[in-house]
Amino acid sequence: MKLVLAAAGFYNIVWGAVVILAPNLFFDLAGMARPNYPELWQCIGMIVGVYGVGYWIASGDPVRHWPIVLVGLMGKVMGPIGMAKSLWDGRFPLSFAWINLTNDLIWWAPFTMILIYAAKENGEKKRVFSPDIQDWAMRAKSQFGISIIEHSKLRPVLLVFLRHVGCTFCREALADLSAHRAQIEKSGTQIVLVHMGREDTSESVLAKYKLTDVPRIWDPKLSVYRAFGLEKGALAQLFGPKVWIRGFQAGLLGKHGMGGSDGDVAQMPGVFLVFHGEILKSYRHQSAADRPDYVALVSEIIDTQPLS
């Protein structure tokens, strides 16, 4: 996204400069009569150049500066419409319409994709960082009667939201946590699980991976999931080709198997590093088959710990 906006900024600034310095150039190339008032065409060049400066600024943080992208896209949609009307009326020759290709049409797809991504990111930030909702969720207590925020005040918490325990990817996640538990805890980080299934079923699965002593939050209504911005997955996220391939790898080759659904099969998982009630890092699954690197999530904490 940053590269696209930087390129758009560079192009607009150069195009605007050419129009300002040589206002008759494009008319000559198209075989058209030169305008009686080139100053008006130069004003268009200045406007395009200003847009270029805006794109250059937006390239620093596309999500934050999405209004600049939106205004730019609106201009790039209206330009070809105006050109089409002029061609229909016979006021411009077809040889002049090529300007719309480089000025407008080639930017439609990338600008639209940037706006879609920005809308998604800003929506997630609003859900995750709403102070009231987050404060409420942090008070959820584990089987030991200690809340998430209380755990996080003692030491950093790797808060792992699981899928239903019948899911092969949930079992793979538990196996990964069990395998790297010593390394994670050596960093001073406490693993805390959030699950949605029945306590008895979940405990039997956790016992298989030697994680029954790990603090866990029971969230059958998925309220804590929602408070951390974790929603239900789309069809492709739950049943796409990657999910089937990874399901075969984890379920059969990895020998994690599958069980009956014990919870909402559409609920997406996620991982958060929490310290003193603040989210330091997060990993939101883009598909049910994603496999987080739990050690990497606590790597900064590991790097700051003295060697024993």
Structure at a glance:
By secondary structure, this protein is an alpha/beta fold. The chain is 57% helix and 9% strand.
Describe this structure in words.
The chain has 14 helices and five strands. A five-stranded mixed β-sheet has the order 3-2-1-4-5. The chain has two domains: about 1-130, no CATH class; about 130-305, Glutaredoxin. The radius of gyration is 27 Å and the shape is elongated. Strand 2, helix 9 and strand 3 form a beta-alpha-beta unit. By secondary structure, it is an alpha/beta fold.
Compile the SSE list and pairings.
Blueprint: H1 2-21, H2 25-29, H3 38-58, H4 66-89, H5 98-128, H6 131-137, H7 148-154, E1 157-161, H8 168-186, E2 190-195, H9 199-208, E3 216-218, H10 223-227, H11 235-239, H12 241-253, E4 270-275, E5 278-284, H13 294-297, H14 299-303
Parallel strand pairs: 1-2, 2-3
Antiparallel strand pairs: 1-4, 4-5
Helix pairs in contact: 1-3, 1-5, 3-4, 4-5
